[in-house]
C-alpha cells in the first residue's frame, strides 16, 4: 500500500544542528507525508540520531525550520507545545520505560497525566495497548523483569497510549533476534494501516527498512544523500548510497605522509 | 462525535457518529453505561464512525463488561470499516458480538 | 600566566552558570508547586509523600543517633572546659544554645546531603542515562514537575522537621551525660535549658535548615540532570552532589550565622 501524498506531517527545511561548535547536521531538508512510513537510514555518525532528537524537540537547531503536523516547533507557546506533544508518540532505542513504575503504569502514565478519563477507562486502554503489542498480561511486571524485545514492545505500547498521529521509532530492531524484529516490523505496518498513523523509523537495518518503508531518507555525514521512494533509493546511482546499501566498506583514501603524521602524532 | 439513542426490537441502540477520540469518548461511555444502568439490552451502532481511538474502544469494553455483570445483552452492529480495523488490531473483533443489523441480532 | 587567567575565567563562568541553573530550578519548581494544579498538571502528591517518608521519616533513626552523640560530646567538652573555672553547672547554657543555633541544623543538613542528596543525584542521573528524562519530555511531562518539585518540597518540609528532632535528641544526650557526670536531675536540666533557649535561637536554626534543605535538593537534582557518560557519569554525579552540597551547606551556614549575629 502506498500512502497518498497529502499535506506533509513533517517538514524539515535547511536544518543545521550541532553541539558545542561541532556541526552534525548540515542543511538537512526532508518531508514526511501523512500516513506514510518514512525510514531514516544512515551509518553511525551520519547524524540520524541527532535528526531524531531535533524532530522530537529535545535539542534546539542552530538554524532551520521543523514543522510537525503543520506547527513550526521553533515558535510554540508552552500550551501549543503540549498540545502537539499529545499527538506524538516516541519509542526510544532502550525503551526508556520509567523503572520505578510497572509496565502497565508506564503505558497509562501519559493518559493519567494528560486526560481526565475515568481510571477504569485508562486501565482498559493501557491493557488494550499491551494486547496490541502482544504483551497482554504483563502489566504488573517491572521493566527490569522484561527481555529486550519485550521492553521495545512495552515502549511502543506507551508511545501509542495517547493514540498519536505521529509515531517515532528509534532503532526498532537493534539488539533483537531476527524473528522478534520481524514481528515488530509487521506490527508497525499494522499500526499504520489500522490507525492511519504517520510513522518515522530511524534504523540502520537495511532488511527491515526495505520491508516496511514507503519512502527512505539516507543520511551521510550530516547531509541528505537521497530522500525518496524505496525503488528510487534502491536504484540510485550514487556510489555512496550503493556502498551503504550493499554494506561495502568505505575505501580509505589517505596519503602516505598524512598516515605517517597520524601514527607518529606529530 | 454525535450520538442518539433509539429503541428497536427490545434493544436500546446507541448510534455513534463521527470521530470518537479522547475528547468525546467519555460522552459515548456515559451514553452506553446509562443504557445499561437502566437495565436495557444495548447495542452500539458504529455505522457512522469515521475514526475511533483506544479510549472509544475502552468505553465499548467497559460497556460489555458491565452488561455481562448485569446479565444484559450487549453487541455492536454495522461496524464501519475504520472501526473494524481498530477492533481487529486489538483482537477485539473476536470478543464482541458483532452483527450486520438489529434485525440480524434479533434473530 | 594567560592560561591561569583563562582557567580562572572558565571556572568563574562555570560557577555562574551553575548558580543560574540552581536559580532556574528553584523558580520552575516553585512555579509547578504553585500553579501546576491551576494548569491541570499538579505536582504529584503521592510522589511528594513518598519522598518525605524517604528523606524524613527514614532518616530519623540515624539523626537520633548522631545528634544524641553530639549532645553527649558537647556535654563532655563543656564540662571539661568549664571545670577549669569551677562553673560546670553552666554547661547547660552552652549545650542549649550551640545545639539549637548550630549543631542541630548542621548535622541534619550534612546527614540529609549524604542520604538524600546522593540518592536524588543517582536516581535522576540514571534516568537521564536511560533516556527516561527524554521520554518524559516528549510525553509532555515536565521532568521538573514530575521529579524535581516533589523532592524540593519534601526536603523543604522534612529538613526543618528533622532539625527540630535533632535539637531535642541532642539536648536529651546532654541531659543523660549531665545527670551521670554532675548528678543533675533531668527536670532541672530541661528547666534550665528551656529558660535559656529563646524563640529566636530556634528560629535561627530553622531558617538555616530550610536553606540547607533547598541546597541539598538543588545540588542533588541538578547534578542528576546533568549526568552524561553512562554508569560512570552517574557515580561521578553522585559523589559530586554530596561533596558540593556539604561544601555549600557549611559555607552558607557560616555566612548566615555571621549576618544573623551582627
Key phrases:
heterotrimer; A: 266 residues; alpha/beta; six-stranded mixed β-sheet; four-stranded antiparallel β-sheet; 10 helices; 10 strands; 24% strand; disordered N terminus; B: 107 residues; Transcription Regulator spoIIAA; five-stranded mixed β-sheet; 5 strands
Question: What would your notes on this structure say?
Answer:
The complex is a heterotrimer of chains A (266), B (107) and C (262). Chain A has ten helices and ten strands. The relative contact order of chain A is 0.16. Chain B has one domain: STAS domain (Transcription Regulator spoIIAA). Chain B is α/β, with parallel strands linked by helices and 107 residues long. In chain B, strand 1 and strand 2 form a beta hairpin. The radius of gyration of chain B is 12 Å and the shape is globular. Chain C has one domain. The two termini of chain C are 40 Å apart. The chains are: A alpha/beta (266), B alpha/beta (107), C mainly alpha (262). Chains in contact: A-B, A-C. At the A-B interface, helix 4 and helix 6 of A face helix 1, helix 2 and helix 3 of B.
Layout of SSEs?
The complex is a heterotrimer of chains A (266), B (107) and C (262).
Chain A: E1 8-19, E2 22-33, E3 37-41, H1 48-55, E4 63-68, E5 71-72, H2 78-85, E6 88-91, H3 103-114, H4 119-132, H5 148-159, E7 166-170, H6 178-195, E8 198-203, H7 206-212, E9 215-220, E10 223-229, H8 230-234, H9 239-245, H10 256-264
Helix pairs in contact in A: 3-4, 3-5, 4-5
Chain B: E1 2-8, E2 11-20, H1 25-37, E3 42-52, H2 54-69, E4 74-77, H3 81-89, E5 98-99, H4 102-106
Parallel strand pairs in B: 2-3, 3-4, 4-5
Antiparallel strand pairs in B: 1-2
Helix pairs in contact in B: 1-2
Chain C: H1 2-35, H2 45-55, H3 60-83, H4 91-129, H5 132-138, H6 143-181, H7 186-196, H8 199-225, H9 230-260
Amino acid at each position: 500500500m502506498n500512502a497518498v501524498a497529502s499535506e506533509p506531517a513533517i517538514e524539515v527545511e535547511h536544518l543545521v544542528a550541532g553541539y558545542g561548535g561541532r556541526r552534525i547536521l548540515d542543511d538537512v531538508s526532508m518531508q514526511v507525508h501523512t500516513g506514510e512510513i518514512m525510514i531514516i537510514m544512515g551509518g553511525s555518525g551520519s547524524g540520524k540520531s541527532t535528526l531524531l532528537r531535533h524532530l522530537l524537540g529535545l535539542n534546539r537547531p542552530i538554524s532551520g525550520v521543523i514543522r510537525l503536523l503543520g506547527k513550526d516547533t521553533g515558535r510554540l507557546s508552552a500550551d501549543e507545545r503540549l498540545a502537539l506533544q499529545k499527538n506524538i508518540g516516541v519509542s526510544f532505542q532502550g525503551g526508556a520505560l520509567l523503572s520505578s513504575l510497572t509496565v502497565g503504569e508506564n503505558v497509562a502514565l501519559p493518559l493519567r497525566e494528560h486526560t481526565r478519563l475515568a481510571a477504569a477507562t485508562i486501565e482498559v486502554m493501557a491493557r488494550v495497548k499491551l494486547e496490541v503489542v502482544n504483551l497482554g498480561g504483563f502489566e504488573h511486571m517491572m521493566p527490569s523483569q522484561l527481555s529486550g524485545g519485550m521492553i521495545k514492545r512495552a515502549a511502543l505500547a506507551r508511545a501509542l497510549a495517547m493514540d498519536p498521529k505521529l509515531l517515532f521509532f528509534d532503532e526498532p530492531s537493534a539488539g533483537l533476534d531476527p524473528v522478534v524484529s520481524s514481528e515488530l516490523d509487521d506490527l508497525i505496518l499494522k499500526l499504520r494501516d489500522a490507525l492511519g498513523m504517520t510513522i518515522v523509523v530511524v534504523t540502520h537495518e537495511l532488511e527491515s527498512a526495505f520491508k516496511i518503508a514507503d519512502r527512505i531518507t539516507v543520511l551521510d555525514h550530516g547531509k541528505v544523500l537521497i530522500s525518496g521512494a524505496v525503488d528510487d533509493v534502491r536504484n540510485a546511482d550514487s556510489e555512496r548510497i550503493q556502498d551503504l546499501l550493499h554494506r561495502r566498506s568505505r575505501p580509505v583514501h589517505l596519503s602516505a605522509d598524512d598516515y605517517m603524521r597520524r601514527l607518529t602524532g606529530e | 462525535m454525535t450520538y442518539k439513542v433509539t429503541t428497536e426490537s427490545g434493544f436500546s441502540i446507541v448510534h455513534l457518529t463521527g470521530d470518537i477520540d479522547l475528547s468525546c469518548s467519555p460522552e459515548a461511555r456515559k451514553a452506553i453505561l446509562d443504557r445499561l444502568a437502566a437495565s436495557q439490552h444495548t447495542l452500539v451502532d458504529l455505522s457512522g464512525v469515521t475514526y475511533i481511538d483506544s479510549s472509544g474502544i475502552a468505553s465499548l469494553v467497559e460497556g460489555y463488561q458491565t452488561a455481562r455483570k448485569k446479565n444484559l445483552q450487549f453487541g455492536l452492529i454495522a461496524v464501519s470499516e475504520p472501526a473494524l480495523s481498530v477492533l481487529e488490531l486489538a483482537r477485539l473483533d473476536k470478543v464482541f458480538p458483532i452483527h450486520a443489523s438489529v434485525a440480524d441480532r434479533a434473530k | 600566566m594567560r592560561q591561569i587567567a583563562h582557567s580562572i575565567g572558565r571556572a568563574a563562568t562555570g560557577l555562574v552558570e551553575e548558580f543560574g541553573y540552581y536559580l532556574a530550578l528553584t523558580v520552575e519548581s516553585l512555579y509547578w508547586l504553585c500553579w501546576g494544579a491551576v494548569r491541570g498538571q499538579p505536582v504529584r502528591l503521592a510522589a511528594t509523600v513518598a519522598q518525605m517518608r524517604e528523606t524524613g521519616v527514614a532518616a530519623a533513626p540515624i539523626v537520633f543517633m548522631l545528634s544524641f552523640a553530639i549532645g553527649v560530646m558537647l556535654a563532655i567538652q563543656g564540662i571539661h572546659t568549664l571545670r577549669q573555672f569551677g562553673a560546670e553547672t553552666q554547661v547547660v547554657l552552652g549545650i542549649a544554645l550551640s545545639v539549637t543555633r548550630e549543631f542541630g541544623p548542621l548535622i541534619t543538613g550534612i546527614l540529609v546531603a549524604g542520604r538524600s542528596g546522593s540518592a536524588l543525584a543517582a536516581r535522576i542521573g540514571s534516568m537521564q542515562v536511560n533516556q527516561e528524562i527524554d521520554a518524559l519530555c516528549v510525553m509532555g511531562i515536565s521532568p521538573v514537575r514530575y521529579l524535581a518539585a516533589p523532592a524540593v518540597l519534601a526536603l523543604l518540609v522534612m529538613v526543618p522537621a528533622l532539625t527540630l528532632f535533632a535539637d531535642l535528641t541532642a539536648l536529651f544526650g546532654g541531659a543523660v551525660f549531665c545527670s551521670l557526670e554532675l548528678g543533675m536531675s533531668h527536670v532541672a536540666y530541661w528547666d534550665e535549658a528551656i529558660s535559656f533557649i529563646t524563640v529566636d535561637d530556634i528560629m535561627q536554626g530553622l531558617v538555616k535548615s530550610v536553606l540547607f534543605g533547598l541546597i541539598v535538593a538543588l545540588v542533588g537534582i541538578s547534578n542528576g540532570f546533568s549526568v552524561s557518560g553512562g554508569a560512570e557519569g552517574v557515580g561521578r554525579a553522585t559523589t559530586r552532589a554530596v561533596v558540593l552540597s556539604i561544601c555549600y551547606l557549611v559555607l552558607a551556614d557560616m555566612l548566615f550565622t555571621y549576618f544573623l549575629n551582627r
